[in-house]
Each structure stands twice: as structure tokens, then as C-alpha cells.
Write a structure and sequence with these properties.
five-stranded parallel beta sheet
């Protein structure tokens, strides 16, 4: 296909064409079979040697990981926010430097290493260059257009390095212009700058969507010259090889060795959860920083778990001098509050959630929860709840009484949302996780607003629709099942400990009220940042804040987190007597407007061994139940349970 398209360009003068634009990478400049991962590793190794000579020793591994994280969350925030624009290399490296405490004066030196690696990883497409020169001599203007993090200056340097000056009349980079070919806006900017009609432009490139489909829909002539399959395969193989080498070098598994053994809950919070939470907060900052660069966004921390996250996050920002000007507020929201909003829109999403939460309740129970008080309802409302009939029930005279109260509560919520966010166009909710019910419901209930959610983990444990998942980011974990190859997924084995870690000792938001000055408050009390200490009575979170108060930079957090995750996995999957105390969370509220609670570890009711073993399946923390109830058998039962989880995960992936 490459030869055929280039041959087309050689047939003679291009009638009606005043401008030829060419993509840069894999078109005008051909990449060797070296993956981006491999190139970044090599650049960071060179930079690590430079830093060592400068008297600032930072391992290449820490440089690579922080750079990779900065890039990963920048692109995630960009894509969730609509995908237009571009992540800039200078921003990625600047965030990497801030995390590691490196001086900004070294950025040009760092970029020079990246450029040096690019120059040995690329080669000139001489065949295409020859054709472009012929058309340029015939009076057609030639420009380069690239979706890239590199600015125009670096792109021009690379093109001139391989082709010499004089081939390209102008260079357009998405990093400079802030628009992308994939959405067509970069082409529009080029057409405007060059002063020509779309039909007078011929574009050449390798990406089927960005270089062919999109320009064709805009009336631009386009030639697609894709990279060969063998080269794509070789590049992926190189990336796998580079990661395997890195894994061997750094150790495939993370071990808790070298960590001081905690002596109490506060110490466990400091030594184990401290690095884990600090790492999570770094991820929040990286995501938020890119969203801030895109403009007009607010970061809202959801009551209740978001309040504890906010406390740790703000402390880390101050400790490491992480810059973030984005508006940040705590918000009065819960699944119940969000469900009311979705109900007012008659969204079917609310039926999914109500059907799961109230499958053992009556229509009257659902009405009481949504309306926020006890109603005197007819016998029909005492029937078992069926979500398929709920909209019809709520449309009856008795149902409209409930609906009026729901509408009043939703009116207060929307006013609170307005008071909290103002006129920002992008609302980023921050919460613990897992499924993102609040995101799903509030997005359906307030469609005129744009919501997205960042949370500790994302997991479809409910088995419901994942249509909202593109707007929900699990910053630490995005898996449905425990994955032995990803140690962070161990928290899916005992998720309640993460919720308990961040939630202050306040009730879930159920009822909103209006103060005399028009502000909205709730039954949860004062939740604004600084008005509530979420670590009060929460020794684990208090320990986390102690760790953050003493941390030096992101490299220390990464090193400490590697050890902490290993210790946390051991505590969850093979708990000792101390771990049982440190990770105990007691009763957990079921929320959604209901007063009931459930115990993570219920007391065994059965006497005989078989029934006690069967009862373990119903425990929320099964490993903890085994360690407590079968102290002599746990050495056999816990490895068997671990193997069962592994087999389950592998089987799910094979399917």
C-alpha cells in the first residue's frame, strides 16, 4: 500500500492541490522497531547518570516510573475531558520534576536526552522526501502536521536532522496549537493559517483515523500509508522485552522487607497505609494538573470518603509544594442524593441501583429512603420491591407525595452544586470507589453538567452496565477481580478497609436543608475543609497523615509504597493476630437512606466444622474470618483460598 500511494504521487502534477501536509512520525520519519517504553528507559538511564554526576542521585527506575505516571494520567485526564487538545512534553517532565523535587533549570538537559534517543530511533523516509521535493519545486507548499507532545521547535530539529533544511515550509504541532488531528481541529487551524480551502489540501499519514478518515470527512484529500504489521509486532515485542528486563532488574514482586514492623494501629497507618495513600494522592495531583491545564474544571471531594482523601491530598500538596490552582471543595453527596437526581429525570439507571439495594425490601421502604421520612402508604406499597413497576407506583397520588419531597431534596442538591462549583464546565468528583454509582446516577440526574470521577479503585462488582466507566478512573486499581500479577488488586479482597480508612465518623448524607442565608447543609454536619478533622478517632488515617508530614519527595513515596503494598497484601491475605486488630473495621452502614449496618466479620453461629467453613463464604473479609475462626487450619485454608482466587482470575481472563 505504501508503494502504491507514493506511486500515485509520482504520476504528474497534482491538479487542484496547493498544499501537501505530511504526518511526521511513521510517515516522514520512520521509527525503528523500538517501543516508547524502551526509548524512555534509555533516556532516563542517561539522565540518572547525569544527575549522579551533578550530585543528585535518583535511580533510573524512579525517573522512569514518575515519568510514566505523569504521562499516563495526563492522557487519561485529557481523554476523559473530551480528548481535544494535546498533552505537552514540557508539562509531563515538569510534573515529573516536581514530584521528585528536581530543579526546573534541568528540564532542557532532560529534553536533550529525549531528543538524542529519538535521533537514534528514527530514520528518514527518503522516498517520500524525494516526492515532496519534486512537488515543492513545482510550486506546491509542503507542511508537516503532527499529533505529538513535542513542540514545533523539536519537531523541526528532528526533520532537519534527517532531511536537512528546506524540505518543509512550516511545522504544526498539536502540543503548540492545543488541537488534534483526531478531532479535525488541527486541520482546521492549518487551513486557516495557510489560507486555503480543504479541497486544495492533500494530507499523507499512517494513522487510519487521524490521517485518513477525519481529513476525508472534512473534504481534504488524504493518502493512507500505514505501518506494516511486522513492524508493529516487532515494536510490541520490544516493549515486552524492555519491561521484562526492567522486571528482572527491579524484582518481579514487591516484598515488605526493610519495613519497621508496626506496633499499633497508628503505626500501621503510618508505615503501611501512609505510602499507599501518598501514592494515591500523587496520582490525583497528576490527573488534576492536566485537567487544570485544559481549563475551567473543579475538583470535588465526595462526602464521606472524599473528606479523608481531601485531608491527605491537601497535606501532600503542601508538603511537596505541588502546585494546583484548580478550585477544590467538599461536596454533600451520596448515592441516595444522586439517586434522587436520577429519579427526577426518570432515568433507568436509578432502577438498576434501587433494584440491587432494595431487593429484600418493599416499595414503602424505597419511598421512605428517597423521600427522607416515614410515609403512611397503602397496602400496595407493602409489596416486595420490583424496579420494573416503580415508575408506575411513583406516578400514583401517593407516589406523587413522595416525589414532591424528592424534588425538594433534589432542588437543594442542585443549589448546593451551584454554590460549590459556580459555572465551571468540568466537574471532577473524587471518592473511594468501587463501581462509581454516584457518578452514574448524578450524571443521569444532572445532564446539563459534565461529570467525571477519579477514585482509588474501579471495579464492576455489581455486574451492572459499564456505560459510565469511560468517565470513571480507578487511579490505583482498574480490575474486576484480584490479579496476582498486580499486587494493588489485593484491596479488592477486603475493600471495606479502604472505605473505613478515609471516612470520618459522620453519617452518610441523607437529608439536605437550607440555612437562613441560603446555603445548603445536611445531616452530616459541617464538612468543609478545615472544619472537620477526619482523622479524629481514626488511628489509621492519623498514621497516614504522620507519614505525609515527614515525606521528602515522590521517589521516597514510590520506594516506600513498594514495600507497603507487600506488607498490606500479607496483612489482608494471611493476617496475623496484630493484623486482625489493625485492619478491624467493625460494623459498616449499608447507607442509601437505611439505618441498618453489616459486620465485616460476623461471629460464627454454627458449631460443626462443615457449617463454619460454609459460613466463611458469606464473610466480607474471608481471610480474616479464617484466621479468626480456624487458627490451626489457616496454614492450609489460606493458601487454598489464594489459589482459588488466582484460578478464578485466570479463568475470567481466558473467557
Amino acid at each position: 500500500m505504501l508503494r502504491q500511494n507514493l506511486a500515485h504521487l509520482l504520476r504528474g502534477p497534482l491538479d487542484g492541490i496547493d498544499l501537501i501536509s505530511t504526518d511526521v512520525f511513521d510517515t516522514l520519519l520512520l521509527r525503528h522497531a523500538r517501543s516508547q517504553r524502551s526509548r524512555l528507559m534509555q533516556a532516563e538511564q542517561r539522565f540518572a547518570r547525569f544527575l549522579r554526576d551533578e550530585g543528585t542521585p535518583i535511580s533510573a527506575e524512579h525517573l522512569f516510573r514518575t515519568r510514566q505516571l505523569a504521562e499516563r494520567f495526563a492522557y487519561r485526564a485529557l481523554n476523559v475531558g473530551g480528548g481535544s487538545g494535546e498533552v505537552r512534553l514540557v508539562d509531563i517532565i515538569q510534573r515529573q520534576f516536581v514530584m521528585l523535587g528536581l530543579p526546573e533549570r534541568l528540564m532542557e538537559q532532560r529534553i536533550s536526552f529525549e531528543m538524542a534517543i529519538e535521533k537514534v530511533s528514527l530514520s528518514a523516509n527518503r522516498k517520500l522526501a524525494k516526492i515532496l521535493r519534486l512537488h515543492r519545486q513545482a510550486g506546491i507548499r509542503i507542511v508537516a502536521i503532527s499529533d505529538t507532545a513535542l513542540p514545533r521547535r523539536q519537531l523541526t530539529e528532528l526533520i532537519d536532522y534527517f532531511h536537512g533544511p528546506g524540505l518543509i515550509d512550516n511545522v504544526y504541532s498539536s502540543a503548540d496549537i492545543g488541537e488534534s488531528k483526531r478531532f479535525g481541529k488541527l486541520f482546521s487551524r492549518v487551513l486557516e493559517a495557510e489560507g486555503i480551502e480543504a479541497s486544495r489540501l492533500l494530507h499523507i499519514g499512517d494513522d487510519h483515523l487521524a490521517d485518513y478518515v477525519v481529513p476525508k470527512t472534512m473534504g481534504i484529500h488524504a493518502l493512507h500509508i500505514p505501518k506494516g504489521r511486522l513492524k508493529r509486532f516487532a515494536t510490541r515485542a520490544d516493549g515486552a522485552r524492555a519491561e521484562a528486563v526492567r522486571g528482572v532488574r527491579n524484582g518481579v514482586t514487591r516484598q515488605p522487607g526493610g519495613m519497621a514492623e508496626p506496633e499499633d494501629r497508628a503505626a500501621f497507618g503510618r508505615e503501611v497505609f501512609g505510602p499507599v495513600v501518598a501514592q494515591f494522592c500523587l496520582y490525583i495531583w497528576l490527573y488534576a494538573k492536566e485537567a487544570e491545564a485544559q481549563g475551567n474544571a473543579a475538583l470535588l471531594f465526595c462526602a464521606r470518603g472524599g473528606i479523608g482523601i481531601r485531608e491527605a491530598f491537601e497535606k501532600l500538596l503542601a508538603r511537596l509544594n505541588l502546585p494546583l490552582e484548580m478550585r477544590r471543595e467538599n461536596i454533600l453527596i451520596s448515592r441516595l442524593v444522586a439517586a434522587r437526581a436520577a429519579l427526577m429525570q426518570h432515568s433507568p439507571t436509578v432502577l438498576d441501583e434501587l433494584g440491587r439495594e432494595f431487593k429484600k425490601n418493599t416499595f414503602a421502604d424505597v419511598a421512605d429512603a428517597l423521600g427522607g421520612k416515614k410515609y403512611d402508604l397503602t397496602d400496595h406499597w407493602q409489596l416486595p420491591f420490583d424496579p420494573n413497576h416503580f415508575f408506575a407506583m411513583i406516578d400514583t397520588p401517593a407516589g406523587r407525595v413522595v416525589l414532591n419531597d424528592v424534588a425538594r431534596q433534589n432542588e437543594l442538591f442542585e443549589r448546593h452544586l451551584e454554590q460549590t462549583t459556580g459555572d465551571v464546565s468540568r466537574i471532577i468528583l473524587c471518592d473511594t470507589g468501587l463501581y462509581g454509582s454516584t457518578q452514574r446516577l448524578v450524571a443521569a440526574g444532572v445532564p446539563e453538567r459534565t461529570f467525571e470521577t477519579i477514585q482509588f479503585a474501579r471495579c464492576n462488582y455489581k455486574g451492572l452496565s459499564e456505560d459510565h466507566f469511560p468517565q470513571v478512573t480507578g487511579l490505583v486499581v482498574e480490575e474486576d477481580l484480584y490479579n496476582p500479577l498486580r499486587i494493588e488488586t489485593v484491596i479488592l479482597r477486603y475493600w471495606q478497609i479502604i472505605e473505613s480508612l478515609f471516612e470520618p465518623a459522620i453519617p452518610s448524607v441523607r437529608l439536605l436543608s437550607e440555612a437562613g442565608d441560603g446555603t445548603v447543609y445536611s445531616n452530616a454536619g459541617k464538612i468543609a475543609y478545615g472544619e472537620l478533622d477526619p482523622s479524629d478517632g481514626n488511628l489509621l488515617l492519623a498514621g497516614v497523615l504522620q507519614y505525609i508530614a515527614g515525606v521528602v519527595n515522590g521517589a521516597e513515596i514510590m520506594s516506600d509504597a513498594d514495600r507497603a503494598w507487600g506488607r498490606l497484601k500479607q496483612a489482608i491475605t494471611n493476617p496475623r493476630a496484630f493484623d486482625m486488630v489493625a485492619l478491624s473495621v467493625g460494623a459498616r452502614s449499608v447507607d442509601f437512606g437505611r439505618p441498618e449496618s453489616v459486620y465485616v466479620l460476623r461471629q460464627p453461629g454454627a458449631v460443626d466444622l462443615a457449617r463454619r467453613l460454609t459460613a466463611v463464604k458469606s464473610q466480607l473479609w474471608r481471610e480474616g474470618a479464617i484466621a479468626r475462626d480456624f487458627p490451626f487450619l489457616k496454614t492450609a485454608l489460606l493458601p487454598a483460598l489464594e489459589m482459588a482466587h488466582i484460578v478464578r482470575g485466570v479463568s475470567a481472563r481466558l473467557k
